[in-house]
Amino acid sequence: ASSDTFTLPSTTDTQRQVILEAMASGTPVAVTDEGGPCEIVGGSDAPVGFIHSINDENSWIKIFTEIENHTLDTKVMGENAYTYAQNFSIEHTFKSFITFHRDALL
Length: 106
Known about the structure:
The protein is mainly alpha-helical and 106 residues long. The chain contains five helices and three strands, in the order E-H-E-H-E-H-H-H. The protein has a three-stranded parallel β-sheet.
């Protein structure tokens, strides 16, 4: 990825697709604590990005300053993001769908 981070400061986005695309390209993401994207970013065991309140401008400034000053290891976060995004691939999602419904019938 050619970006240090991808930022989606939306409080209403529920699709999460653009977040998954950024993560699948190995880019850490910064999202608000509202809407669907925070569920994706917050669901990973390893750090893949940042979640902040849209109203907490100081936390956003702090994160972007740390990224700019290279005090955060966004390379490792990007690698984590890429790995975690594979859980949402079409293949993985389809297998989970089939398994869920097969188990429900048994």
